């Protein structure tokens, strides 16, 4: 394995982002994935998608219980290349920002930050109050990268999958993972005809 990534999924709307991320990573033989699902993420997988929790778990190399605070990824001595939280609820964002590491997802994120590894969060809520904005500002000062699931339209997405895939491919860009799924802006300002 040339890369080891932790994927955390929490209970914000947007479970398709985390699932698509795992799907893409599953097809990359050099990347090992460690998955942690919150209770609310499990619920929202069933509400928002046609996947079962078991099917999602099968996409990862290792799955850790959110209650297993003694798992490998809870320690900085276990080397990883970083972590993605997709989607990231405001509750999980708050816990990460305050090092309130009472479950494996938030502990693993705290470890990634303290070890100065890459932490990418896909926070999702709307509308946002000042408290949400403050949390995002503070965690950003601590080194996390905020990559909210906000679609771009310059690449002319046609399906929901286009939108989801473009967002998670940009997240993987941040780890230097070339998925071949992004549409880099080339400075071409051509108008779309149809
Ligand atoms: C269908 C559904 C959608 C939700 N969407 C959001 C959301 O977009 N953002 C958010 O912060 N919380 C959202 N929540 C609330 C969180 O799931 C809730 O705060 C939960 O306690 C988060 O726990 P977790 O961070 O451990 O997953 C949603 C809950 C449900 C049931």
Q: Which cofactor or ligand species appear?
A: flavin mononucleotide
* Low-confidence sequence ranges: none
What is the fourth-level CATH superfamily?
Flavin prenyltransferase-like
Shape: globular
Which fold does the CATH topology refer to?
A: Rossmann fold
Number of helices: 7
- Strand percentage, roughly? 15-25%
Plain-language structure description:
The protein contains seven helices and six strands; from the N terminus they run βαβααββααβαβα. The protein is globular, with a radius of gyration of 16 Å. It is of the alpha/beta class and 194 residues long. The chain starts with a strand and ends in a 21-residue tail after the last helix. It has a single domain, classed as Rossmann fold (3-Layer(aba) Sandwich), CATH 3.40.50.1950. It has a six-stranded parallel beta sheet, sandwiched between helices. The structure holds flavin mononucleotide (FMN). Residues 10-13, 38, 40-41, 43-44, 47, 89-92, 124-125 line the site of flavin mononucleotide.
